[in-house]
Design brief:
Helices cover about 50% and strands about 10% of the residues. With about 325 residues, it is an alpha/beta fold.
Length: about 325
C-alpha cells in the first residue's frame, strides 16, 4: 500500500481527494495561498473551495512545495494552465520513481497537450496516471456513491494505485486508454458551457439533449483523431462525465454558460466564481485551434469559441449552429 502522499492543489477536488486518501494514508496538502493555509488550520475545513466538509485532522497543510519530498505518490490537482509551471517548481522535490496522478481536466493552450504529456516532459517520469470521471467534489466529499476511472498504459502501476483511491463510496475502475480518458475529460467541459447557455436562455430539455448529443459527436471525432478507444468515449470517462457536467448544479462550466446567457461578461463571471476555474473556457480555445488546423469538424466548439473569444452574439451563434447541423 502507498502510505506517503502529497496532493498539490487545494481547490474543491484536490481537498476532497486529500480527505479521501487520508482515510488510509499519510497525506500532505499543498495550498498556494498562505492566508488559506491559516484559515484551513484554524477552521478545520476549506471554507473557500469546499465549505461544510470537515477535514481529517491528520492532513498536513502547507504552502511549501517541499511537502512533495520523499512522497511515494503525488496527486496533481492544479488547473491545467498552471500545471507546467507548478511542475517545474516542484521537480526538485520529486524522485524519479515517484508515482504521479493527474486529476485536472483540460488541454494546455499553445501546445494542445494533455496533462500527462506535460508531466512527462517536465519530470522525465513514466509513472503517470490520470483519474477522471463524473466526480463532482461536492458529492464525493459527502461520500455519495460515485464511480470513476484511473488510466495508464502500465497495468502493474494501475494495480498498485487503484486500491489507494478505491472506497465503498468511490468505485475506481482501472483503464488502459489514458489518451481517451484525458481527452474526454477535457472536451466534455465545452459542451457543459453550451448546456449552461441553453438553460440560461430558458430553452428546454429537447434543446439540451440535442446539444449533449452534438457534444458527444465532437468528443468522439476529436478523441478518435488521437487514437482514443470507442469504449472510453462511451464509458464513465466519456458519456458519464459528459452527462454529469452538462446537467449538474455543481458544474462550474455549466455555470459559466448560464451567466453568459444572462448577458454577464466573462470578467464579471470570474469574479462571481471567487477563484474557482472553469477549464472549458481555455479548452474551447485549444480544441478550436487544433481542429481548425487539422480539419476536424467541430461546429459546437467553433460557435462557442466565437462567443467566448470573438464576442459573437449568443443567439446568432445558436442560429448558425442550427443551420450547420
Amino acid at each position: 500500500m502507498i502510505e506517503k502522499i502529497a496532493v498539490i492543489g487545494a481547490g474543491g477536488w484536490g481537498t476532497t481527494l486529500a480527505n479521501l486518501l487520508a482515510e488510509k494514508s499519510e497525506v500532505s496538502l499543498w495550498v498556494r495561498e498562505k492566508e488559506l493555509v491559516d484559515v484551513i488550520k484554524k477552521e478545520g475545513e476549506n471554507k473557500f473551495f469546499l465549505p461544510g466538509i470537515k477535514l481529517n485532522k491528520n492532513i498536513n497543510i502547507s504552502n511549501s512545495l517541499e511537502i512533495a519530498k520523499d512522497k511515494e505518490m503525488v496527486v496533481m490537482a492544479v488547473p491545467t494552465q498552471f500545471t507546467r509551471q507548478t511542475t517545474k517548481n516542484i521537480k526538485e522535490h520529486i524522485k524519479k520513481d515517484t508515482i504521479i496522478v493527474s486529476v485536472a481536466k483540460g488541454l494546455e493552450i499553445g501546445t494542445d497537450k494533455r496533462i500527462s504529456q506535460i508531466l512527462r516532459e517536465e519530470l522525465g517520469n513514466d509513472n503517470i496516471l490520470a483519474l477522471s470521471g463524473p466526480n463532482h467534489c461536492e458529492e464525493v466529499s459527502r461520500r455519495m456513491p460515485t464511480a470513476t476511472v484511473i488510466a495508464s498504459e502500465n497495468m502493474r502501476l494501475l494495480k498498485k494505485v487503484q486500491p489507494v483511491f478505491n472506497r465503498t463510496y468511490f468505485k475506481v475502475y482501472p483503464h488502459d486508454d489514458i489518451v481517451g480518458v484525458e481527452f474526454c475529460g477535457s472536451i466534455k467541459n465545452i459542451t457543459a458551457i453550451a448546456s449552461g447557455v441553453v438553460d440560461g436562455l430558458g430553452y428546454g430539455d429537447n434543446t439540451k439533449a440535442s446539444i449533449i448529443t452534438l457534444g458527444l459527436t465532437e468528443m468522439n471525432n476529436f478523441s478518435r483523431h488521437f487514437g482514443a478507444k470507442r469504449a472510453t468515449i462511451y464509458g464513465l470517462a466519456g458519456v458519464g462525465d459528459l452527462v454529469a457536467t452538462c446537467t449538474s448544479k455543481h458544474s462550474r462550466n455549466r455555470f459559466v454558460g448560464e451567466k453568459l446567457a444572462e448577458g454577464i461578461s466573462f470578467e464579471e463571471i470570474k469574479k462571481e466564481m471567487h477563484g474557482m476555474v472553469a477549464e472549458g473556457v481555455t479548452t474551447t480555445k485549444a480544441v478550436y485551434e487544433f481542429s481548425a488546423k487539422n480539419n476536424i469538424k467541430m461546429p459546437l466548439t467553433t460557435q462557442l469559441y466565437q462567443v467566448l473569444y470573438e464576442e459573437k452574439d449568443l443567439k446568432k451563434a445558436i442560429s448558425d449552429l442550427i443551420e450547420l447541423i
